[in-house]
Write a structure and sequence with these properties.
- The chain is an alpha/beta fold.
- It has one domain: Rossmann fold (3-Layer(aba) Sandwich), CATH 3.40.50.
- 45% of the residues lie in helices and 17% in strands.
- It has 12 helices and 8 strands.
- It has an 8-stranded mixed beta sheet, sandwiched between helices.
- Helix 12 links the parallel strand 7 and strand 8.
- Helix 2 crosses helix 3 and helix 7 runs antiparallel to helix 10.
- The longest helix is centred in the C-terminal third of the chain and has 25 residues.
- The radius of gyration is 19 Å and the shape is globular.
Length: 290
């Protein structure tokens, strides 16, 4: 009874918000070619291991949807879920664990866990996980390692001390050219000097997040994993999504591409269909979180 009351209390505020935001997002199922609800995604997760939520980091509606999806997953699957985040690094996992178990203060957690400047946008998910005893995994590579790759290329990682290697993916990182390379170079603005090293850094981020997901899945059999990252990392099932297939080919995954779009009023779903299993368009008129 106590747990039921708790669930009711956490859902009620979000039900009110859902009423307010119901006109500010639209979800499209690419396979079924129709508009769907958040609950439909939860139902589809019955035989799926990992759900990628590819976000725009300043999208207020996207952040609202993330926490709702995460809570719905936890309720639907009896808290047999885990949360993996681009927004925290692998080397601060002890700090995350200390906070989740209530040993350290939130102030220390934010400072020593090197939380992003917009941590307020992800805080509701972390706090829900804390209250429900759900594990949160810092999935990304620390900036010091990324900077080293950008400066020296991937080979520099092999020179790190043994104690540092525990925070990094153990296998070679594929940086072959292809669709992902072309997309990244277009984003970068060209193939200038040093571009390949920057691309290697991108692949390094992807591989680290994929390895973090795979490792969690191996250690927590049967749990659903909710992975939140910038959408470039998982759009078109490239980047982190593709790297995950190398680390854990048996894991089944679905991906969401969520973003503010000027065609929100009259969506051109065909234009967006290659981005993911689900496309979520959010209202560009809603104020951004930063």
């Amino acid at each position: 009874m106590k747990r039921l009351l708790f669930i009711t209390l956490i859902i009620l505020p979000f039900f009110v918000q859902a009423q307010d935001l119901s006109q500010h997002y639209k979800i499209y199922d690419v396979k079924k070619q129709k508009a769907i609800s958040l609950d439909d995604i939860i139902t589809d997760m019955a035989n799926i291991d990992v759900l990628f939520f590819g976000e725009e980091h300043n999208d207020s509606v996207g952040h609202y949807l993330e926490v709702n999806l995460f809570k719905k997953l936890a309720i639907a699957y009896g808290n047999k879920v885990g949360l993996t985040l681009e927004m925290f690094h692998t080397d601060v996992q002890p700090v995350i664990n200390e906070y989740l178990t209530g040993i350290i203060t939130e102030k220390n957690f934010i400072k020593e866990g090197r939380a992003w400047n917009n941590y307020k946008d992800y805080r509701p998910m972390v706090e829900f996980a804390k209250s429900e005893g759900i594990k949160v995994i810092g999935g990304n590579a620390a900036a010091r390692y990324s900077n080293a790759v950008t400066k020296n290329s991937l080979e520099i990682l092999t020179k790190l001390p043994t104690n540092s290697q525990q925070f990094l993916p153990p296998n070679a990182i594929d940086t072959l050219t292809g669709r992902y390379y072309d997309k990244f170079m277009a984003l970068l603005g060209g193939h200038g000097m040093g571009a390949m090293k920057v691309y290697q850094t991108q692949n390094f981020w992807d591989a680290t997040m994929a390895w973090s997901i795979a490792k969690f899945a191996k250690e927590n059999k049967g749990k659903k994993i909710f992975q939140v990252n910038g959408r470039f990392h998982s759009d078109e099932k490239l980047g982190t999504y593709a790297q995950l297939k190398k680390y854990a080919p048996k894991l089944k995954a679905l991906n969401i591409s969520a973003f503010s779009s000027e065609d929100f009023a009259n969506p051109n779903w065909e234009k967006h269909r290659d981005l993911g299993d689900y496309i979520i368009l959010t209202d560009p008129k809603v104020k951004k979180s930063f």
